Amino acid sequence: MKTANISFCRFQPTVNFLAALLTGFLRAALRFYVETKGLGRICGEPYQMKLTLDGKIKGREPDIFFVKTENFDRVREQFFDGAADLVVEIVSPESVARDTQDKFEEYEAAGVKEYWVIDSNRRTANFYSFDETGKYRLLPISADGQFESRVIEGLWIKTEWLWQETLPSLMEVLKEWELV
User: Fold this and answer.
1) What order of strands is seen across the sheet that includes strand 40-43?
2) CA pair distance 136, 138, nearest whole angstrom
3) Which of 70, 87, 99, 120 has the most other CB atoms within 10 Å of its CB?
4) What CA–CA distance (Å, rounded) separates 93 from 46?
5) CA distances (Å), 46 to each of 65, 78, 104, 162, in order?
6) Could you tell me where the beta strands, DSSP code E, fall in the chain?
């Protein structure tokens, strides 16, 4: 079974609609992967991540975030206390500056270990992790368009999945990951 096929829609899909489809796709795929491997949990808006920045607490609701099992002690009923291990933001037209500048700086300062910024409108995917100076650096994507996470053990994604008119089905991705 395929995920939402844009050609079935009776309206011209907006960038926000495409971003919502992409968020749902990634959330489902990542959740299945990390739960199957027993690595942690996938969370996201409306569940909040509370960061301490310059002595002040700031709440953010990332589109998707990953918490390693060893950090479950920071899970609260209403929020996650501190920086998640991985945050994924799907850029929409009104969030470009917020996701690529404001959140980039906040997540880096707060200690989010890996930050993915995916812009379906521009068809760009940037993956960041800390370098030896404690600053985010852009992580490589292989020549065939594959990205390997530094935070989620064994996880890789093909960036071409993100730009397909019809996103791959969860089953297709799980087969490629050899989970089914």
Assistant:
1) 40-43, 64-68, 86-91, 114-119, 124-130, 136-138
2) 7
3) 87
4) 20
5) 11, 9, 19, 23
6) 40-43, 48-53, 56-60, 64-68, 79-81, 86-91, 114-119, 124-130, 136-138, 146-148, 156-158
Tokens 């992967």 found at: 33
- Specify the 3-state DSSP secondary structure of 36: helix
What's the rounded Cα separation, in Å, for the pair 175 and 126?
A: 25
Q: Output the pTM of the full model.
A: 0.89
CB 41 within 8 A of CB 34: yes
Q: pLDDT tens for the chain, 180 residues: list them.
A: 444 444 444 444 455 788 889 999 999 999 999 999 999 999 998 999 999 999 999 999 999 999 999 999 999 999 999 999 999 999 987 888 889 999 999 999 999 999 999 998 888 999 999 999 999 999 999 999 999 999 999 999 999 999 988 999 999 999 999 999
